[in-house]
Amino acid sequence: FATIGAAAEEWTFEVSDNAPRVVSCAVGRDWAARMETNALAAIGQDGATKPVPWVLDTTGEQPELVFLADGRTRFTLIPRTGGSISRSTETAPSLAVDTAADGEITVRNVSFTLSHSAKKGGLPEHVTFPLSGQRDDDIFFLDRLVRRNAEGRLDQYTLRNAPATVRIALNTPLRAVIETSSVVQGVRISYRYVYTGGSPRTPVVGGPQ
Description:
It is a single chain. With 209 residues, the protein is mainly beta. The chain contains 1 helix and 19 strands. A 5-stranded antiparallel beta sheet has the order 9-10-11-12-13, with no helix packed on it. The model is unreliable at 1-7 (pLDDT under 50).
């Protein structure tokens, strides 16, 4: 993860094992306008540019440019010449998000498949690991709200028992973002799950508001 200044026109990323990896950079809010007319490209040894899959994620507090890097590569912006290069899936890792009729959202990555159910706090559940075929329904988040009652004892309320609003904030082959929101005992609890194509790493941001 790195930060690109608004004035940057060229930068370099290095992936240690030289395998195509999805990387992300924090960028300024002005990049939303910049990427309306530009695309991202890798600079070859001969100086030639080649467009790469990318997407600008504006769902969080700070925009992030998400793209595919392979080995030590220089990148730059080039004028967009038609079509949406950001949606290119030619070399992008596998990442898919589907919504069932009952509103349950399923995330499929190369490392795992899991679901977000609005009936159970929007928390991830039903984790399946494609390589082994193992499904584990006993793995789940046990978020709890603890409050002292009138008698001085501590009462616990689990988020899994509360209905939630679950929405797909971003859905691309490079990155998907699922946002959930529930109200437990008058307290709103919201989470933002960030899934990355080809990676098991899933940052989760949020909590009571």
